[in-house]
């Protein structure tokens, strides 16, 4: 059950580790300065997509631990809240980057939409976990899994560039 979770040290460690990785990845995605070239812009895309994927995976891990009853509610809340904050920070930073040419507008639109999905999905999961709403938590976890798959596709496309 999502609402009533108890955990041993290994589950708490897993949630803490995932949250720490999300924070580190988000910090890596917040590279200062404008992207003056298409190549530079695509580095921002890759870093931001990686940070968003880390935050989303933190959420899906927390949801799985909650469903299996392997973590305490406060630990899950901390992990999901942190991941949501990270995703929103990455989204704001990425949105402030102007594509240097019209050729990058499509990737900007795609990643901006996925960033919104990540933040919204993590917010939905956080609220559902706090309310003990198992059905909504499952739906949010499924939506986050879909977002993760789309972020992986962005990263694969960037790797092929």
Automatic annotation (TrEMBL):
Spans annotated as Disordered: 82-108
Source organism of this protein record: Streptomonospora mangrovi
Taxonomic lineage: Bacteria, Bacillati, Actinomycetota, Actinomycetes, Streptosporangiales
Name of the protein this chain belongs to: DUF305 domain-containing protein
Signal peptide: 1-24
Keyword terms: Signal
């Amino acid at each position: 059950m999502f609402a009533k979770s108890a955990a041993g040290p290994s589950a708490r460690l897993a949630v803490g580790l995932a949250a720490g990785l999300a924070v580190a990845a988000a910090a890596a995605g917040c590279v200062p300065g404008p992207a003056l070239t298409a190549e530079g812009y695509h580095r921002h895309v890759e870093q931001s997509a990686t940070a968003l994927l880390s935050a989303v995976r933190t959420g899906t891990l927390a949801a799985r631990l909650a469903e299996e009853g392997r973590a305490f509610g406060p630990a899950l809340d901390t992990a999901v809240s942190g991941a949501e904050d990270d995703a929103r920070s990455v989204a704001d930073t990425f949105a402030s980057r102007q594509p240097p040419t019209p050729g990058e507008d499509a990737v900007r639109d795609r990643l901006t939409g996925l960033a919104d999905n990540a933040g919204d999905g993590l917010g939905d999961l956080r609220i559902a976990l706090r309310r003990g709403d198992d059905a909504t938590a499952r739906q949010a976890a499924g939506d986050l899994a879909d977002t993760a798959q789309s972020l992986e596709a962005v990263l694969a496309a960037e790797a092929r560039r």
